[in-house]
Amino acid sequence: MSQPKILIAFYSRSGVTEALANAIADGARASGAEVRLRRAREVVSAEAMAKAPGWTEQAAALNAKYEAPTEDDAEWADAIIFGTPTRFGSVSSELKAYIDSLGGLWFQGKLNGKAGSVFGSTSTPHGGNESTLISLYNPMAHLGLIIVPLGYADPAMFKSGTPYGASSVSFNQATPPTADDLEVANFQGRRVAFVAKALKAAHITETKS
């Protein structure tokens, strides 16, 4: 049986959420999964971006590294992992715009039964990581994804992260994720790959029966 295919669709401005995305990808690939890393694009004007120092330059650099996520990516995947920085305790508008674009696939039922998971970052210790991750469970349920939380299924979870998904705090300095944060993210990639592979095998078996 072919290995699972995983889409990691994320938004990152300063590179913190990007670092978690890459650690998740490493864990998934270590488990044999094929991974697509995609960065959601800005939805505000160039004028608005210019008011935040460095935003325009950072966006250009990240967009040069990653393609934008598409409907085809979501249909291709056996699992979709969404990543976002916290914006006022909730998902960034950039990632939400991508999720909203999946309405056609939702209507056709093409996302039903795929694995789904989330990760995120925030600037302050109580800046909303958990509320943001939990808020993403709602659209995943509507899309028909089978939600894969982390629980405390790995020793790394007792050092960092949340049971809802990998996370990081940048302390308003774009501080990169810690080694413990990245270990949790790596575990998330392995866990989602395991679940996606099991779901794919079950679907193949059901189709043949």
UniProtKB/TrEMBL annotation:
Highest taxon above the source species: Bacteria
GO MF, any single term: NAD(P)H dehydrogenase (quinone) activity
Keywords, alphabetical: Flavoprotein, FMN, Oxidoreductase
Pfam families: FMN_red
InterPro entries the record matches: Flavodoxin/NO_synth (IPR008254), Flavoprotein-like_sf (IPR029039), Flavoprotein_WrbA-like (IPR010089), FMN_Rdtase-like_dom (IPR005025)
Record domain Flavodoxin-like: where: 6-192
Enzyme class: oxidoreductase
EC assignment: 1.6.5.2
UniProt xrefs under SUPFAM superfamilies: Flavoproteins
PANTHER family registered for this protein in UniProt: FLAVODOXIN-RELATED PROTEIN WRBA-RELATED, FLAVOPROTEIN-LIKE PROTEIN YCP4-RELATED
Similarity field: Belongs to the WrbA family.
Protein name stated in the entry: NAD(P)H dehydrogenase (Quinone)
Organism (species): Labrys monachus
